[in-house]
Structures are given as structure tokens and as C-alpha cells.
């Protein structure tokens, strides 16, 4: 059995608003990334939205997994910094684990959702769900497995009534579930119901009916951006030469967008006299704006691996940020660590499932950046077909086995059988 992703309704395509589309052309080379002022960010030439995939684990992970350095300046101080800014809300609803028996013991599944909402937005405008990730923590609590469900996976979305509008159910992209759940609502109410319908939708996948999420989080763009600013950028390995479709410079140093965008959203011809920012293969220290630009790219990648390449780069970026925090003296600088955690907390809304944040942090204290494995659905390969006249991507049987291994706490066994599905660090 295969589950498919459709190119139909997509309330969360993070490239559409900026004109990004797969161009199909081969990228060229380029020099090393320019270091044009460490904290400089590209100008705003229209609405640009960065993928929330990478933001999730920097934010949520900072609370759960950076406490390997807790003894450096005291448990109470760290916990206070980590929890004081976090918004807590019941997101899991009836689809979550039983709160009356909440405990940090045993295997844990955490649902992470990235959104791109705006204050006071039109109630009739669908809230975007840019990324959907399951963080599975085995009973040993010494490892974390990150599994991203492709945002346009074609699924059955069950009927749902949020008290304002009723959705009658149907088949659509999985990210539409978040939008339909919160339709007609705004603010926290929209998020709560969108999150719950997304949970219920995941439970409709083959073999996933028994999954219960023990915690969840919703993360916004602005918080991640500010965390990277606090860190002053990250050092990471660029595994394939990547040209930016968003940022370029003229010979005089003026910033311009380097490509025209076709009416269908595809990347068009190059803008004369504008050289695209190019990230060459190798280890680089990326300034905040470069890092955010790099993890957005999927069009002009050397290996032509499109969205799979972008997901891999985002996964690599997650670990790079963890390592940056651990190696930059942040943990030995109480003021800086407090600022990082405060910034992290303001970016997120969490549901701890009836377990205190303090207990979560203590239970996950042995999980560090190198203990997080990211696993690629479809082994990182494209699998396309036509459904209802539209080009779609399918999730193969092995991908469904991966998701089912989350329910049975056997992800480690899956990894042993499919080591090539683990993304490179």
C-alpha cells in the first residue's frame, strides 16, 4: 500500500509565496559564501517565509536536550530560564495520551508542528502548517529519532467539528488537516483544533491507529530567527554546492533577487548582472541570514535532489545549531544561555501532556545533539505517480513500516535494517 502526496490544495507551501519552484535546471558552481556582516539579513523584497522544519528542533530540543550542561550553572536557574517564557496550552485534546496516567517513563512520541501565522489574520484564511515531525524517544531515553511526514502526503482526513465550523472529512494533503481543524478560528483556538485534527489524521495512516502523542509543540518562524541571531550564526558542512534563488548581489554589492519567477511559480531566467549567493561544498561558518537562506533552497542543488536535499540540509543544520551552542561557550555563560532559552521559549507553544517541563527536561537529559538521528521517508528518493490528474509523490511500504515502528518502539530495529535511510550528519 502506498500513500501519496498531492500538488492540489497546499496551505503551507513555504516556497510559493516567494516564487520558488523546482526549475529542473542544473546548478552551477560558485565561490565560498560571502561574509557580508555577521548578522546581516537579506532585504525584504516581498513576503519570504523560511521552512519551519529546521526551526522545530532547535527550539524544542533546546528545552529538552541542552541540559547536558545543567550542572554548569545550576539546575534551578536553567529550569527557570527554560520555562518562564514558554506558552503552555492543551493541544493534544482527545487524540493525546491519557493525562490521568501521565509519566515520563517508557517510550515517548512528541508531535512537532511548524506554522506561519500572523497576528489578527482573517478568520477565513487558513493557518499554514509548514512542517510535521514525529520525535520518537525510545524507552531507554538515550536516543531521539526525527521523522518528517511530507507535508503534502495524500491522506484521509476524518470529519471534525471545532465548534465554529464543521469539516465533513475527505482526502487531501496532510498539512490541510491543520488548516481545516482551525478553520473559522483565530489565535490559540485555531492552533488547538488544527493540532488535534492533525493528530487524528496521522492516526488514519495504516498501522498508526494506536499512536498516542505524549507531548506536542507548535513553533513560529520569528523565534527561530532570533535564536540564530543570538548565536551569531553556525558552522556546518555544506554537502553539495547550492545556489540561492532568493539572494544575489551586483558587482557594486547591491542586493537583488538573482532570478525571475515564471507565471507558474517556476524559477525562470537569471537576472543579468546579479550573482546568486552560492554555498560551496565544504565547512563554512554561516552568518544568521546565510544559514536561513541556505536551508530554504531546493531548486538549484548540485545533486538535483530537490526537497529531499533541502530536508537533509535542514536536518544537518539542526545538529549544527546544537553543536554551536555546546561549543561556543554558551553553556558556561549564564547570561547568554538564559537569553538563548528565553528566546526559545517565546517562540513556542507546548503541551507537555500532563508532565511538567522540568520532568521532561530531566528525563531527556542524556540526549545530546549527536544522539538525534533523522530518518528519511522513501529513503530520500522521489516516488511519483499521477492521482486524479495531478502529479503526486507516494510513501512506499517501507516508509509505512518506519511510521509503524514508532508505535511499537522498534525504530532502532528499523534503522539496523535500513541504515541508508539515516540522514548524514
From TrEMBL:
It comes from the Bacteria. Residues 37-47 have a biased composition (Basic residues). The chain crosses the membrane at residues 52-74. Residues 1-48 are annotated as: Disordered. Keywords: Membrane, Transmembrane, Transmembrane helix. InterPro entries: LytR/CpsA/Psr_CW_biosynth, LytR_CpsA_psr. The keyword Glycoprotein does not apply. Residues 128-326 form the Cell envelope-related transcriptional attenuator domain. Residues 1-10 have a biased composition (Low complexity). Belongs to the LytR/CpsA/Psr (LCP) family. PANTHER family: POLYISOPRENYL-TEICHOIC ACID--PEPTIDOGLYCAN TEICHOIC ACID TRANSFERASE TAGU (PTHR33392:SF6). This is Cell envelope-related transcriptional attenuator domain-containing protein. It comes from Rugosimonospora africana. The lineage of its organism: Bacteria, Bacillati, Actinomycetota, Actinomycetes, Micromonosporales.
Amino acid at each position: 500500500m502506498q500513500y501519496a502526496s498531492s500538488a492540489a490544495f497546499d496551505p503551507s507551501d513555504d516556497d510559493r509565496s516567494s516564487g520558488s519552484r523546482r526549475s529542473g535546471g542544473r546548478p552551477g558552481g560558485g565561490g565560498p559564501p560571502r561574509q557580508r556582516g555577521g548578522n546581516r539579513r537579506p532585504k525584504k523584497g516581498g513576503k519570504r517565509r523560511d521552512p519551519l522544519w529546521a526551526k522545530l528542533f532547535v527550539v524544542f530540543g533546546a528545552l529538552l536536550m541542552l541540559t547536558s550542561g545543567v550542572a554548569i550553572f545550576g539546575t534551578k536557574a536553567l529550569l527557570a530560564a527554560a520555562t518562564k517564557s514558554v506558552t503552555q496550552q492543551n493541544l493534544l485534546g482527545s487524540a493525546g495520551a491519557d493525562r490521568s496516567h501521565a509519566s515520563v517513563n517508557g517510550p515517548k512520541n512528541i508531535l512537532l508542528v511548524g506554522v506561519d501565522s500572523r497576528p489578527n489574520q482573517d478568520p477565513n484564511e487558513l493557518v499554514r502548517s509548514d512542517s510535521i515531525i514525529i520525535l520518537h524517544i525510545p524507552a531507554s531515553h538515550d536516543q531521539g529519532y526525527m521523522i518528517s511526514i511530507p507535508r503534502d502526503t495524500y491522506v484521509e482526513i476524518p470529519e471534525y467539528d471545532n465548534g465554529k465550523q464543521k469539516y465533513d472529512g475527505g482526502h487531501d494533503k496532510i498539512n490541510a488537516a491543520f488548516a481545516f481543524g482551525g478553520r473559522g478560528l483565530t489565535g490559540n483556538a485555531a492552533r488547538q483544533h488544527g493540532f488535534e485534527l492533525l493528530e487524528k489524521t496521522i492516526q488514519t495512516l495504516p498501522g498508526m491507529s494506536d499512536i498516542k502523542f505524549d507531548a506536542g509543540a507548535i513553533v513560529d518562524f520569528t523565534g527561530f530567527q532570533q535564536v540564530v541571531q543570538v548565536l551569531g550564526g553556525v558552522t556546518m558542512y555544506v554537502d553539495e554546492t547550492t545556489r540561492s534563488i532568493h539572494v544575489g548581489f551586483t558587482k557594486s554589492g547591491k542586493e537583488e533577487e538573482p532570478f525571475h519567477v515564471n507565471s507558474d511559480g517556476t524559477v525562470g531566467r537569471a537576472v543579468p548582472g546579479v550573482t546568486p549567493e552560492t554555498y560551496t561544498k565544504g565547512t563554512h561558518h554561516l552568518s544568521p541570514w546565510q544559514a536561513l537562506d541556505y536551508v530554504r533552497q531546493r531548486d538549484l542543488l548540485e545533486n538535483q535532489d530537490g526537497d529531499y536535499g533541502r530536508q537533509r540540509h535542514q536536518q544537518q543544520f539542526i545538529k549544527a545549531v546544537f553543536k554551536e551552542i555546546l561549543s561556543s561557550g554558551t553553556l558556561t555563560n549564564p547570561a547568554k544561555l538564559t537569553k538563548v532559552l528565553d528566546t526559545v521559549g517565546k517562540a513556542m507553544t507546548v503541551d507537555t501532556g500532563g508532565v511538567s517541563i522540568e520532568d521532561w527536561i530531566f528525563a531527556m537529559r542524556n540526549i545530546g545533539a549527536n544522539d538525534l538521528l533523522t530518518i528519511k521517508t522513501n529513503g530520500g528518493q522521489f516516488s511519483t505517480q499521477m492521482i486524479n490528474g495531478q502529479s503526486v509523490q507516494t510513501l512506499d511500504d517501507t516508509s509505512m513500516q518506519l511510521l509503524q515502528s514508532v508505535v511499537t518502539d522498534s525504530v532502532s530495529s528499523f534503522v539496523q535494517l535500513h541504515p541508508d535511510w539515516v540522514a548524514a550528519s
